[in-house]
Design a protein that fits this description.
By secondary structure, the chain is an alpha+beta fold. It is 25% helix and 26% strand.
Length: 434
Amino acid sequence: MLNRRHFLLSQGALLAGCAAQPEALLAPGAPSQLVAHTRPDPGLENLLPVRVGANPYEPLAHALRSPPRSAEARALIVMLGDSHTAGPAMVGHLRELMQARFGAAGPGRLPPGRAQRPINANQIAEAGQSGEWVARSALRASNPGPFGLTGYRLTGERAGDVITLRSTEAAGFDRLSLSLLAGPQSGSFRLRVDAQTLGPVTLRHDQPEFRPVTLDAPRGSREVALEVVGDGPVELLGWGLDRRGRGVLVEGFGINGATLASLDNRDPLILARELANAPPALVILAFGTNEAVDSDLDEAAYAAQLTRQIQRLRQTLPRSGILVMGVPDAGRPVRPPRRGRPPQGCAAISPLPALTRVRAAQRSVAQAQGVGFFDWSAEVTRSPCRLPELARGAAPLMRPDLVHFTPDGYRLTAERLHAHLLRGMGLGTRLAST
């Protein structure tokens, strides 16, 4: 049977910081109520230093260097960003590199179902979805929320609506997480892990509330399926798979078209609780490309906005490191003339109008706030003038739009980012050449 660890967290509990009293998960002859405690994951929390010093990479180094303090000791990296992060290649390859060196612990948390396509689990988890699910994102402030860490919300209401998440790793998973919304109109669902079924579980409650749920499963479990009963809507903000024991989790949450402002569209109480319950050793902010298209961008205002987001993260995660990824080079291709030689080099591209201002603000804020800075331009693209060249050849690194990378380009970025993290932690590395 599943070893059930249940969590109930209302808005009042978020504000007061108190946990609900546990109740039985399965009541004979009645739908189940998810209930529980709210303390942070000890396997992640115990590996973090007491405080962050001058080196923003020290919390990650501390977590990876520390001897095992429990059977569930893990280190977590969380990346928040735009379409560069939403795709599977960059986050997935960074996960591969980190887990190859420090131990694999699964894909971690993901947007629910197929709310984001494609999911960034990079072939170690496959999401399925059938029925009439409705997906929303935190891209715009006008989009109805609430939203949490993933930036997505998935709603199913019809009986038989199903979402599945299957591990493709040989080791499978032995723990799964759900981020759920409950309320007066909420319905019920059944949860299946391989051949074992839990439920029906009701989310109906007299007050709207956020419920993060963690369940232990048999080792080597392969698939989880969530099926809507049909007595009301079931809403998920996220779910995930991992394994107990030492290792690294790398989670990426990106939204196509997102700017730094999309972080304000996430519910601050839900976001804070999700981060506090699973405290990362390092948070990576990977925004800037969509800000760089704004010819009227106010550099000082953008710097103030980035400073505020860093300070908010630091308040929620005082023992975690923070890294800002400087915006990569990007631009628009110049249309070639009808006659004559096509433009080459700098003449073949029109850089995004606010690119240099965004990058300058990111670098300045990172230095002023004492957080890490990864210079994506210096590490990979090196100049906007090189983009047309990087988009040509048998193995191009850039797509023809000169904004997005090919899978090879994202993998190279992940390799350079991985090397940057190792250097920051004092572990050393060898760099590949472009």
